[in-house]
Write a structure and sequence with these properties.
The complex is a heterodimer of chains A (268) and B (251). Chain A is built from 12 helices and no strands. With 268 residues, chain A is an all-alpha fold. In chain A, helix 4 packs across helix 11. Chain B is 34% helix and 26% strand. Chain B is built from 9 helices and 10 strands. With 251 residues, chain B is an alpha/beta fold. The chains are: A mainly alpha (268), B alpha/beta (251). Chains A and B meet through helix 8 and helix 9 of A and strand 6 and helix 3 of B.
């Protein structure tokens, strides 16, 4: 509840608000300045020949490459492929991981049985399964989505299970003292109580599903930003590699900013 | 007045991997209707165990626990439980919090019960906060909401597990008065667990003193102070005398 109409602020309050605003502006300027200096310096070093643009590319070459790729029409296919794989992988992994976590919360015995396997699966580098995935589901979009799911799902399960288990025992006793059955404890206490944890899992999964997608596309693919990176490095056109990475940055940031308002909405 | 709650020679053992721990050793006492009884004892002596047994969350190793002459069953519906912290659900409004029990028991459409919930809110000055979230309320108000949440289900016995210990001292005295007032005007029977002797003295008409683990009943004291509220009882001349008697009994 903001009081916007109140005019008679005290001197100290005015100063405080002013400083608050000043601080915000300085931080914002700092953030943009950092980006501008980085890009400017990069361009300068490349133009003067201090770094070899063949290996390090340069902002202008990246922009030119992106425009070039855009003209030939393939750029959108690559972006769309990666975006599609990431979003599908992200959604499936989050849903499956949460369902597994619910099952493990429900049965303590199942949880104990599964514990060592979860730990092993979590520490296994999923990329090692890459060749097998290609044999199982064939190369292309399917393999990439599977890779993406494998990378996110165990982490989702573990994080959500921890959130479920950390629910205050007295709250469960309270529910029991009011005759709640296990379904009611799950739906009316455990799940809503774990919403903040769920949102941080979403934020982590945004990053992880991009890792999965790019890894999957490195392994085998005919389209996607990961494919483009791989292709660019093979024909020694590092501008393509850098352009793809730039696009990746923009896409990942975009997805993150789509998820993060949820946090504000549900934060207590 | 007849006995509402009876503990008859109750023994209870906790099982741990290492050993079997005796928590209660032949505990017998009773609580009469509309009594306000307090259990005091050294920390870790098994006070909360007694509440859990009464609530049907645990069962005695031997002996009997009767409410209204009937043996306590699993999750017995006849009790209301109040905890150290209010445990209001932050994602629910005050109204949704106090009707939680009705919702769980599929009585959310019972107009009489809803009317009763509304009445309680009005009576105890919380009606204006009906649609607020718990975080918008003070600690004392939250504890009142927690009490109303249990009262909505009309339990015959209220169990209070150190319900004031999470509050600061000022709030505590105030909430103590409030809760006492509500319990008395709703004519409820209450069993309070506390390690605070003066709290027990100011609220109850009977105090059961327990020994350290395994808990035995050391003494049962009837308390009768002049004064209407817990706060005014604290000013009674005999308050200090009783305090010392219990204190000596505890150490």
């Amino acid at each position: 509840m903001k009081k916007t109409k109140q005019i008679n602020y005290s001197k100290a309050r005015k100063l405080y608000l002013k400083n608050l605003r000043k601080d915000k502006i300085i931080v914002l300027i700092g953030q943009f300045a950092l980006l501008a200096i980085f890009i400017g310096l990069w361009q300068l070093l490349a133009d003067t020949g201090a770094i070899d643009p063949f290996f390090f590319s340069s902002p202008s070459r990246i922009v030119a490459t992106i425009i070039d790729l855009g003209k030939t029409g393939n750029l959108w296919i690559h972006i769309w492929t990666s975006l599609y794989e990431t979003i599908i992988g992200f959604i499936i992994a989050t849903v499956i991981g949460s369902l597994i976590a619910i099952a493990l919360w429900w049965s303590e015995r199942l949880r104990k049985i599964m514990e060592p396997y979860l730990i092993i699966l979590n520490s296994l580098p999923k990329i090692a399964l890459g060749p097998m995935i290609i044999f199982w589901v064939g190369s292309g979009t399917g393999a990439t989505i599977v890779m993406c799911i494998l990378i996110c799902v165990i982490l989702t399960t573990i994080s959500m299970l921890n959130a479920f288990i950390s629910c205050d025992n007295d709250k469960i006793l309270l529910m029991k003292s009011m005759h709640a059955n296990k379904f009611q404890i799950l739906f009316k206490l455990i799940l809503p109580n774990s919403l903040p944890a769920f949102i941080s899992v979403l934020k982590i999964n945004v990053g992880m599903s991009w890792v999965g997608t790019i890894m999957g596309e490195y392994l085998s693919s005919k389209a996607g930003l990961g494919y483009l990176i791989n292709y660019g490095s093979q024909i020694l056109k590092l501008d393509i590699v850098m352009a793809s990475i730039t696009l990746l940055c923009i896409l990942a940031a975009g997805m993150y900013f789509l998820v993060s308002p949820l946090e504000k909405k549900f934060k207590r | 007045m007849k006995n509402l709650l009876e503990f008859k020679n109750v023994n209870y053992f906790y099982q741990t991997k290492e050993s079997e721990i005796k928590a209660l050793d032949g505990v017998s006492f009773d609580v009469k209707e509309k009594d306000f009884t307090s259990l005091v004892g050294p920390s870790g002596c098994g006070k909360t165990t007694i509440l859990s047994l009464t609530a049907g969350l645990l069962f005695p190793s031997s002996g009997e626990i009767l409410i209204d002459g009937k043996k306590v069953e699993k999750n017995d519906g006849r009790i209301g439980y109040m905890f150290q912290r209010d445990h209001l659900f932050e994602w629910r409004t005050i109204w949704q919090n106090i009707t939680l029990g009705l919702e769980l028991q599929k009585q959310k459409k019972d107009p009489q019960k809803l009317e009763f919930a509304n009445e309680l809110l009005k009576k105890y000055d919380l009606y204006n906060f009906k649609n607020k979230k718990p975080r918008q309320l003070s600690g004392g108000m939250r504890q009142r909401v927690a009490l109303i949440r249990t009262l909505v289900l009309q339990p015959s016995l209220l169990l209070l597990d150190e319900p004031f210990s999470a509050l600061d001292f000022q709030t505590r005295l105030k909430v103590c008065d409030d809760v006492y007032d509500i319990i008395k005007s709703e004519q409820k029977t209450a069993l309070l667990v506390t390690h605070d002797i003066s709290e027990a003295l100011s609220m109850s008409n009977k105090i059961v003193i327990l020994s350290k683990r395994p808990a035995k009943v050391k003494e049962v004291m009837e308390i009768n102070f002049s004064g209407e509220t817990p706060l005014s009882k604290r000013e009674d001349d005999d308050f200090g005398k009783y305090f010392e008697m219990i204190w000596r009994n505890l150490v």
